[in-house]
Design brief:
Layout: E1 35-37, E2 50-52, E3 60-63, E4 72-76, E5 88-94, E6 101-103, E7 109-112, E8 123-132, E9 138-150, E10 163-169, E11 191-199, E12 209-219, E13 232-238, E14 246-251, E15 263-270, E16 276-281, E17 286-291, E18 302-311, E19 325-335, E20 342-343, E21 348-353, E22 361-364, E23 367-368, E24 377-381, E25 391-393, E26 399-402, E27 413-422, E28 429-439, E29 447-448, E30 454-457, E31 465-472, E32 483-487, E33 497-501, E34 506-511, E35 523-532, E36 539-551, E37 557-559, H1 562-570, H2 573-599, H3 635-638, H4 672-684, H5 735-741
Parallel strand pairs: 3-9, 10-12, 13-19, 21-28, 30-36
Antiparallel strand pairs: 1-2, 4-7, 5-8, 6-7, 8-9, 11-12, 14-17, 15-18, 16-17, 18-19, 20-23, 22-26, 24-27, 25-26, 27-28, 29-31, 31-34, 32-35, 33-34, 35-36, 36-37
C-alpha cells in the first residue's frame, strides 16, 4: 500500500459583531453564509438589525487508507471570540467523534485517529460547538459539517462468482469467445474449461487483477445424418401370419441428441412395397417392419425392400454437408405352413322355390386346399345351425340338397354353416355361412281377413252398403296381391244381397230387396268366392253370416233376437212380474228345506268304539321299480290264469288262523266280465279279506293288440344299431320318428 500526503484543509471562521447569536446553516454543503435581516418599517417605527453568523464551514475531504506514522490532520475549528487565553472549549459530536475523529478542545484542531476505508463508509456527518469554560455558555451555536473520504485504487478487481457456466452451439464461428477451432464438434469434445483474468488498468495502483473459471458446454445441432450399421437385413415370416404382425426392427444411428436425432423410416422401393409397411417407434427411433397384405408361399417366397431413414428436423445451415438420410435393404422370406381349406366365396346365397321336392339339389359350395399338396376335402353341415335337419350336403362335391319340405310362410330364410375339412388332417377346417332364401309359390288361397259380425236392418232399402270385407293371403307374390270377389257358382244370383268388387282388394255387401223380417229369417248365410291372380290361381269360399236386426230411423241396431220380439209381443208387464215372484218363492223354499235337513240328527247304528266300520284303513303300497316284486305283481292283471297266494290282513291280528285260500284256476279263455264276477265272489267269501268298506279294483289287459306292449320292461336288448327304415311304412303319424332315426349318414356328422 502506497502512502500519499495530502495538503491540509483550512477552515476559515468569520465572526461578525451582532446583537443576537445566529445559528449556523444546518446543511454542510452550502458555500455561502446564511443571514437573518431585521429591518425597521414605517408602520411600527422599530429599528432593523442585520446579523451574521460567527463561523462558516466548507466540506472537509480526507484520503482513505492513510498509513503515516502520525495521525492524519483533517482541519481546524476557530471562532473570532477565541482570544487565545484558553477560556473557550471546542466540542465535536457526530459520526465517529471521539473514535475516528478527535479534536483539540483548546485549539480546535481535528485529526483522524484511525485509517479510513471508503468502501466501508464514504461520508461522515459531524457537529461542532464552542463554550465558555467558566460559565458553560455557548459562545457559538452548534454547527454541522461533512467529511468526505476520497477513493484511491487500493482494491483488485473481483468476479462475483468463482465458477461460471456457459453453452455454445457446436460448429459456431468466431464470436464473443474466440475459439482456437471455429468448427468445434460436440461429438469430438463436449465440454471445455476457460480461465479468465480481469486486470485493473487505471490509477497509481494499476496492475491489480482477478481471475475466474468458465465451464463451456457445446450444445448439439443437427449436423450429422443417420447411418445404418449394416446395409442388409434379413427376416422370416410364415405365410399364415395375420395382418399387422411385426416381423422385425431395423435401426439407424445418429450421433446427434434430442430432436436432432429423431428420424423417420419409409419404404423407398422394392417388390414388397405393397405387401409390407414400416412404422417408426418414436421411443426407440427404430423402424418396425409389418405385414400389410396376406402372404402366400405358393405365390411368392421372397420379397426385397429398400428402407430409408431420414432426419425429421434438418438444419438448413448444414444442408451442404449432404443428404440427411440413409438406405438399407430388407429381405423377407415367406415360409410354408399347412393352411385350412379356402372357400371360393366369403358367403353363399341360394334361392330356392318353396315347392322343391325332397332330395333336390339347391346349390353347391366349393373349397380348395391352398397348400402345394392340394389335399382332398370333405364337406359337412354344422347341425347346430340346422337343428331340424332340413338340409344336407354331399361330402365329396359340396352339393346342398333338401331333406324335408320347405315352407316360406313359416320360415322364409335358413342360415346354415358348411364346414370344409382336409381328409388327411381334420384339424385344418374352414367354415362358411350359407344363406338360403325360400322363394314364394302361390300355394295358399286367400281368406277373409277376420270374422265379420254383419247385420241388416229390417227396414233396409235396396242398394244399402251393410259390410265391407277384405282378405289376407300368406303368399307374397313379387307383383303384390290382387284379389277378386264373386258369388259362388252354385248361387250365381242371390235374391237378398249383392257382392260388389271394389277393385282394391275389398268387396262391399249390398242389400237387394226392400225390408227384412226377423220372424221369417233371422240369419242369412252369404258365401263369397275369393281368388287371386297369381299362378297357379288359388281360391277359397268365405261365408258371411248376416243377422236381421231391429234398427232405429238412423240405422242404429237395437235388437237382433227373434225370441225377444215374440216375448215382448205376447206377455204383459204384470205377467213378467208374477213369473219373477214365483221364482223367488221357489228359491226361498229350497233354502228352508236345506236348513231343516242339516238340523236333523240321525242315530248311529253301533255306538261302540270297536265298530270296525269306523276304522278306515289306508293301503298305500307303492312299487319300488322293476325289482320291487313284493308290493305289487302286475302279472295278475296281464294274465287271468296267474295264481297268487292269499295274504293275511296286515292291519289287525286275526283271531283264528284260517287255511290259506287258493283261487280256482281259469283254464279256459273266459269272458272278462265273468272273470271279475268270480274274483268278487271269492273276495266276499274270504274271511281274511279287508273290511267290507274297502275297494278292490280289478283290471285286465287283452292279448289281441298287434303292437304288443309298449313297455320297455320286456323289450329285447340288442347291442348293434337297428334299422328303422320300416317306420316310414307305418304312415304319416310315424313320419317324425322316421326322420329322426332314418336320416342320411352325412347328417350324423
Amino acid at each position: 500500500m502506497r502512502t500519499y500526503h495530502c495538503l491540509p484543509l483550512f477552515i476559515w471562521t468569520y465572526m461578525f459583531h451582532t446583537i443576537d447569536a445566529i445559528p449556523f446553516q444546518e446543511k454542510a454543503n452550502s458555500d455561502l453564509p446564511s443571514e437573518r435581516i431585521v429591518g425597521l418599517t414605517q408602520d411600527d417605527g422599530k429599528t432593523l438589525h442585520r446579523t451574521k453568523r460567527g463561523w462558516m464551514w466548507n466540506q472537509f475531504f480526507l484520503l482513505e487508507e492513510y498509513t503515516g506514522t502520525d495521525t492524519q490532520y483533517v482541519g481546524k475549528l476557530h471562532t473570532d471570540q477565541d482570544k487565545g487565553d484558553g477560556n473557550l472549549k471546542y466540542i465535536l459530536t457526530g459520526d465517529g467523534a471521539g473514535s475516528l475523529f478527535v479534536i483539540d478542545e483548546n485549539t480546535g484542531d481535528i485529526h483522524a485517529a484511525k485509517k479510513l476505508d471508503r468502501e466501508e463508509k464514504s461520508l461522515y456527518v459531524l457537529r461542532a460547538k464552542a463554550i465558555d469554560r467558566k460559565t458553560g455558555r455557548q459562545v457559538e451555536p452548534e454547527s454541522e459539517f461533512i467529511i468526505k473520504i476520497h477513493d484511491i485504487n487500493d482494491n483488485e478487481p473481483k468476479f462475483t462468482k468463482d465458477l461460471y457456466t456457459a453453452s455454445v452451439p457446436e460448429m459456431s464461428g468466431v464470436g464473443i469467445i474466440k475459439t482456437a477451432l471455429p468448427d468445434m464438434s460436440r461429438e469430438n469434445r463436449e465440454q471445455y474449461q476457460v480461465v479468465i483474468q480481469a486486470k485493473d488498468m487505471g490509477g497509481q495502483m494499476g496492475g491489480l487483477s482477478g481471475t475466474t473459471t468458465v465451464n463451456i458446454t457445446l450444445t448439439d445441432v443437427n449436423n450429422n445424418p443417420p447411418r445404418f450399421p449394416q446395409s442388409t437385413y434379413q427376416f422370416y415370416s410364415p405365410e399364415s401370419v395375420p395382418l399387422g404382425t411385426h416381423l422385425g426392427r431395423i435401426k439407424a444411428n445418429d450421433p446427434d441428441v434430442g430432436e436432432n436425432a429423431e428420424m423417420e423410416y419409409s419404404i423407398a422401393e422394392g417388390d414388397g412395397a405393397d405387401m409390407f409397411d414400416v412404422i417408426t417407434d418414436k421411443d426407440t427411433q427404430e423402424g418396425i417392419i409389418t405385414v400389410k397384405q396376406n402372404l402366400d408361399y405358393e405365390n411368392k417366397m421372397l420379397y426385397t425392400l429398400k428402407v430409408d431413414a431420414s432426419n425429421t428436423h434438418p438444419d438448413p445451415r448444414f444442408l451442404y454437408l449432404g443428404p440427411f438420410k440413409d438406405t438399407a435393404v430388407v429381405k423377407i422370406s415367406v415360409e410354408d405352413t399347412d393352411e385350412p381349406p379356402v372357400f371360393s366365396k366369403i358367403f353363399y346365397l341360394i334361392e330356392v322355390d318353396e315347392d322343391v321336392k325332397e332330395g333336390s339339389i339347391i346349390g353347391q359350395v366349393t373349397a380348395y386346399d391352398p397348400d402345394a399338396m392340394n389335399n382332398l376335402i370333405k364337406y359337412s353341415v354344422d347341425r347346430h345351425s340346422d337343428m331340424d335337419r332340413i338340409f344336407s350336403i354331399h361330402s365329396e362335391n359340396g352339393s346342398i340338397f333338401t331333406l324335408k319340405p320347405l315352407d316360406r310362410e313359416s320360415t322364409p330364410w335358413h342360415n346354415i354353416t358348411i364346414t370344409a375339412t382336409e381328409i388327411n388332417n381334420s384339424k385344418q377346417s374352414s367354415r362358411i355361412p350359407v344363406f338360403i332364401r325360400i322363394l314364394d309359390i302361390n300355394d295358399h288361397a286367400p281368406e277373409l281377413a277376420m270374422y265379420y259380425e254383419t247385420f241388416v236392418c229390417e227396414n233396409a232399402k235396396p242398394g244399402q252398403l251393410i259390410q265391407t270385407v277384405s282378405v289376407m293371403d300368406k303368399d307374397d307374390p313379387p307383383r303384390g296381391h290382387k284379389f277378386f270377389f264373386e258369388p259362388v257358382p252354385e248361387f250365381p244370383l242371390n235374391p237378398n244381397f249383392t257382392i260388389v268388387d271394389n277393385k282394391d282388394n275389398t268387396a262391399g255387401i249390398m242389400t237387394r230387396k226392400d225390408g227384412y223380417s226377423r220372424n221369417k229369417m233371422s240369419t242369412y248365410l252369404l258365401p263369397i268366392l275369393i281368388f287371386d291372380n297369381d299362378y297357379p290361381i288359388q281360391s277359397s269360399t268365405g261365408t258371411l253370416t248376416i243377422r236381421v236386426c231391429a234398427c232405429d230411423n238412423q240405422g242404429n241396431m237395437q235388437s237382433c233376437n227373434a225370441e225377444a220380439l215374440v216375448l215382448s209381443a205376447g206377455l204383459s208387464t204384470g205377467a213378467l212380474i208374477a213369473i219373477l215372484l214365483c221364482v223367488v218363492i221357489l228359491l226361498v223354499l229350497v233354502v228352508l228345506f236345506a236348513a231343516l235337513k242339516r238340523q236333523r240328527k240321525k242315530e248311529p247304528l253301533i255306538i261302540s268304539k270297536d265298530d270296525v266300520r269306523d276304522n278306515i284303513v289306508t293301503y298305500n303300497d307303492e312299487g319300488g321299480g322293476e325289482e320291487d316284486t313284493q308290493a305289487f305283481d302286475i302279472g295278475t292283471l296281464r294274465n287271468p290264469e296267474a295264481r297268487e297266494d292269499s295274504k293275511f290282513r296286515r292291519d289287525v291280528m286275526p283271531e283264528t288262523i284260517f287255511q290259506i285260500r287258493r283261487t280256482v284256476p281259469l283254464w279256459e279263455n273266459i269272458d272278462v266280465q265273468d272273470f271279475i264276477h268270480r274274483r268278487l265272489k271269492e273276495n266276499d267269501s274270504d274271511p281274511s279279506a279287508p273290511p267290507y268298506d274297502s275297494l278292490a279294483t280289478y283290471a285286465y289287459e287283452g292279448n289281441d293288440s298287434i303292437a304288443d306292449s309298449l313297455s320297455s320292461l320286456e323289450s329285447p336288448t340288442v347291442d348293434c344299431n337297428q334299422d328303422y327304415g320300416y317306420l316310414s311304412d307305418w304312415g304319416p303319424r310315424f313320419k317324425k320318428l322316421a326322420d329322426m332315426y332314418g336320416g342320411d349318414d352325412s347328417d350324423r356328422d
